[in-house]
Description:
81% helix
Amino acid sequence: MRGFGAIVARDVTLAFRAGGGAVQAVMFFALTIVIFALASGPDREQLAKIASPVLWTAASLAAMLSFDRLFQDDYEDGSLDVLIESADPLALTVIAKALAHWLSTLLPLAAAAPVLALLLNLPGEAYGPLVLSLLVGTPALSMLGALASALTLALRRASILMVVLTVPLMTPVVIFGVGAAQAGAEGDPQFTPALMILAAISLFACVFAPLAAAAAIRFNTD
Length: 222
């Protein structure tokens, strides 16, 4: 577990340094929301209705920006070979990398969402369900990003391929994330079931994605 914590601490530190992906992801998220709010016109009532889908979509797109950094840098400098040799099991290392990505990229996005929601006229009662849905659903995005990064590890300039791989996998997360956020804002009894399905997707991704990503890493590095 000491090695697990060391990987998480190292990746989080690197993510916030100059050139890391964390700051760029938050800036992209903020700029997307600002541009959308300015382009949508003065109809604040209509803007409030689509605030949750816009925030969830922007967060998903921002997360994609840093997926290629999950393993590519370690692969290029040779440190991934050390991790493969020392990791037992390798899936635990994948979980550590994905956790570091979530802590450095998606957790700041969830924290920034309520502030940016002001630009979209999100009702006050919708803030709690929105943040809760992001906290429950975004771990799945990091895990799926780790899987896509592992699958494209040996390919150069694979950003487009990574998007093609991740978008279909991320779609259910976004659908149920938006559904939970909107149901919670409206006091709909479907909020709890939608949130539970979202949690189930994240749990499934946390089990399946590390195993598949570990197999892909070994295949691409043999």
